């Protein structure tokens, strides 16, 4: 009887050891996971405006923290400059206009970057002016237009001019940093500025209530997406989990911002004292229709539309033939519509 008890005790001890080994992974594996947050730099599309609030919302609301990511948010200066920072490894993520990204990739001016989500389902880019002197694309001839040298409007202008039948050489393009644009227009130093449609409240505030007019690129270029989330192809391939976690956290901030524009504007104003909450909130209210489309998930990308944009740019001679949608987007990392 005593011997039987000793055998049962020994078997129990062995069983306990086996369970402990299974829990720790065995073979010296302790099962401890590295919970150190990933460190990333994110570049906004264009400065610190209401339309960019969603990044600060994702940070303030803890969406990045829940995704185990520490994010440094830096103001961007336009698509060309932004994606160059990603390509060079100075930033892990940036926002840039998808058409501009396509143009730069198609012409071989940039490489090593890929789109993993769409902020805007429709393009916001166009020309902003004051008064009624510029109402049609043809009115731009002989005028001065200020814009950032790296903005997508600047990159696409020759293509747009060809589509609307104006001579791009007749337009005086003036280089300016994003924060300067409202002042340049309001003071009459230029006739128009490159601007997003959501910038109407900002421009009218700078012009002390004078009415702003907007000519959108999308009237002629109907397949264009707006801003997109860009990362490096190296990161997309080596750490797709990080890319997905960042993408989802950022788009949570985007959804919150269009659901609660005033709340998002206040978060942005707390982060940057130059922001006027009322103006920022008005931008986000306008932006909702560009972000949220019926039956289309926020952030999604349609590969067919990307192909149609490529076809448009090829047809106008903006890029040579050869680039495909998969050269622009990473299908395994996009949200499908």
Total strand count, please? 10
- Fraction of residues in H or I helices: 40-55%
Q: Overall 3D geometry?
A: globular
Provide the structure class.
Answer: alpha/beta
Kindly report the oligomeric state of this protein: single chain
Whole-number tally of structural domains: 2
Question: Architecture of the largest domain, according to CATH?
Answer: 3-Layer(aba) Sandwich
Give the N-terminus to C-terminus distance in angstroms.
71 Å
CATH class of the largest domain, anyone? Alpha Beta
Poorly predicted segments: 1-30
Mean pLDDT: 90
Radius of gyration: 25 Å
List the helices and strands and how they pair.
Elements: H1 2-24, E1 38-43, H2 53-60, H3 63-66, E2 69-74, H4 79-87, E3 93-97, H5 98-106, E4 113-118, E5 125-130, E6 144-147, H6 152-164, E7 172-175, H7 181-186, E8 192-196, H8 200-206, E9 212-216, E10 227-232, H9 233-238, H10 240-259, H11 261-271, H12 277-291, H13 303-315, H14 325-328
Parallel strand pairs: 1-2, 1-3, 6-7, 6-8
Antiparallel strand pairs: 3-10, 4-10, 5-8, 5-9
Helix pairs in contact: 2-10, 2-11, 5-6, 8-12, 10-11, 10-12, 11-12
């Amino acid at each position: 009887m005593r011997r039987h008890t000793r055998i049962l005790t020994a078997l129990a001890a062995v069983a306990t050891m086996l369970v402990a080994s299974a829990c720790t992974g065995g073979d010296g594996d302790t099962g401890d996971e590295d919970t150190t947050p990933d460190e990333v730099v994110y570049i906004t599309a264009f400065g610190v405006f209401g339309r960019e609030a969603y990044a600060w919302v994702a940070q303030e609301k803890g969406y990045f923290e829940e995704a185990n990511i520490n994010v440094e948010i830096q103001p961007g200066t336009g698509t060309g400059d932004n994606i160059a920072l990603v390509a060079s490894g100075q930033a892990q993520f940036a926002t840039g206009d998808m058409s501009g990204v396509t143009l730069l990739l198609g012409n071989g001016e940039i490489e090593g970057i890929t789109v993993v989500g769409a902020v805007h389902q429709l393009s916001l880019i166009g020309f902003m002016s004051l008064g009624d002197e510029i109402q049609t694309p043809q009115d731009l001839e002989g005028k001065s237009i200020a814009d950032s040298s790296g903005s997508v409007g600047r990159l696409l202008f020759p293509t747009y001019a060809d589509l609307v039948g104006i001579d791009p050489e007749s337009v005086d393009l003036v280089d300016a940093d994003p924060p300067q644009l409202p002042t340049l227009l309001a003071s009459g130093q230029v006739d128009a500025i490159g601007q997003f449609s959501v910038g109407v409240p900002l421009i009218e505030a700078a012009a002390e209530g004078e009415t702003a007019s907007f000519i959108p690129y999308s009237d002629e270029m109907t397949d264009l997406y707006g801003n997109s989330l860009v990362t490096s192809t190296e990161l997309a391939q080596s750490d797709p989990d990080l890319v997905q976690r960042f993408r989802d956290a950022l788009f949570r901030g985007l959804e919150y911002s269009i659901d609660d524009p005033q709340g998002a504007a206040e978060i942005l104003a707390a982060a940057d004292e130059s922001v006027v909450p009322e103006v920022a909130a008005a931008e986000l209210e306008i932006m909702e229709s560009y972000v949220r489309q019926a039956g289309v998930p926020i952030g999604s990308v349609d590969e067919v539309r990307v192909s149609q944009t490529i076809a448009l740019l090829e047809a106008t001679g903006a890029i040579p033939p050869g680039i495909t949608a998969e050269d622009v987007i990473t299908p395994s990392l996009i949200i499908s519509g």
